[in-house]
Design goal:
With 375 residues, the protein is an alpha+beta fold. It has 5 helices and 20 strands. It starts with 7 loop residues before the first helix and ends with a strand.
């Protein structure tokens, strides 16, 4: 069995390269000078909260998939507290201390959805600087404004008055933090993806940090909250025929080379089942949820000259985004997916159960990227 032109490592590299290219070609908003004490009025509107599966640095356990949310009008400080471009942002305060400082100005902490809408702006951009991230904003945050004119978003972690509810039953909710802080230790500069307006992180409201600030809002507090991330079964059956898979692959450049798609017969699975431990299920296609909030279509099959394993993010309108793929050039042996229903993150594949080099796994990494590897 010969690995295809992209193993797990090179596939991840290709995705990163595409993201970098997209950022370099993005339309960025012009920078401008900030004003002391400026507040921005955000009109009432409905907008999609969250993000699209496959976006750079997306955490599916925290970011919902574009859930419509309606907010009433509110006002937000153009800059983090003290809202003065001549002064550094106030950091090193707990959430309670931040709320008190806002109250002293007859304001309040923003909710996280108010923060997200102010960041996405009129055109609902992915980044506060447009459809890509402007690295100049890391040096001069106050000069960078969202489509609504709210500044310095995405360069500092910011307290909100909202809570993050865990998808794990019984787990306590914690404070919702928006934006991104300084790199930790030798981590190096963060990826552009963490600057996205939809990015959420958790915070301990009783603790402070030098990269954790806040900004104030005014007007009636919007009661809307981020849609809780739901926990669904790890493995669910699905069955697309060869024509449906071919149509999906035709729209994905990396998979367009797969022609004359064929689905493996169940008889091949029965032959392999004799070698599999009891309790292990075999399939050629399934919907896999390796962690709360994440869902992927994982499918195996073959074309005229190669077999394949693909992992795709289902999107709205029967569309799909590529997560990862693995091709076996010159090999059309049947491939089965193997799993145990209660081992959420363990999804294996094999064309010869127990044969070295002819099996592997589909994995979710710590950064939530999906990779397909050969053992």
């Amino acid at each position: 069995m010969v690995p295809g032109p992209t193993d797990a490592g090179s596939m991840t590299g290709a995705a990163a390269a595409l993201a970098t290219h997209a950022a370099s070609a993005a339309t960025l908003r012009a920078r401008s000078a900030a004003k002391t004490g400026e507040t921005i009025d955000i009109p009432a509107r409905t907008f999609p909260s969250g993000s699209t599966p496959g976006e750079e640095a997306r955490d599916p356990t925290l970011e919902p998939i574009n859930v419509p949310v309606t907010l009433s009008a509110f006002s937000i400080d153009a800059l983090p507290y003290p809202n003065d471009p001549q002064l550094p942002p106030k950091t090193g305060v707990t959430r309670g201390e931040a709320a008190k400082l806002c109250a002293e100005r007859s304001e309040r902490l923003c909710t996280e959805l108010e923060w997200e809408l102010a960041c996405k702006g009129k055109d609902l951009d992915t980044y506060p600087t447009g459809d890509g991230w402007d690295t100049a904003c890391e040096r001069d945050p106050a000069s960078c404004a969202s489509g609504y004119g709210v500044r310095a978003m995405g360069v500092l972690r910011e307290w909100t008055q909202s809570q993050v509810t865990s998808a794990i039953e019984g787990a306590a909710s914690v404070a919702a933090v928006r934006g991104v802080g300084a790199p930790v230790g030798d981590a190096g500069p963060p990826s552009h993806g963490v600057r996205r307006c939809a990015r959420r992180t958790r915070g301990n409201e009783a603790k402070s940090a030098p990269d954790l600030g806040f900004r104030c809002c005014s007007g009636a507090t919007n009661a809307a909250i981020v849609a809780p991330i739901t926990n669904v079964p790890a493995f669910r059956p699905t069955k697309l025929d060869a024509a449906q898979l071919a149509k999906i692959f035709a729209g994905i450049p990396e998979l367009a080379q797969l022609k004359d798609i064929r689905i493996y017969e169940t008889g091949h699975l029965n032959e392999m089942k004799e070698k599999v431990n009891p309790g292990v299920h075999l399939a050629t296609q399934l919907i896999w949820s390796p962690e709360p909030g994440a869902e992927l279509l994982v499918a195996t099959g073959r074309s005229k000259s190669m077999s394949f394993i693909v992992a795709l993010y289902p999107l709205e309108g029967e569309k799909y985004r590529l997560a990862s793929y693995f091709l076996m050039l010159g090999d059309v042996e049947p491939i089965a997916l193997a799993y145990e229903p209660f081992r959420r993150q363990d999804l294996l594949w094999s064309s010869c159960w127990g044969c070295a080099g002819e099996q592997g796994s589909v994995r979710v990494r710590d950064d939530h990227h999906i990779v397909i590897v050969q053992h």
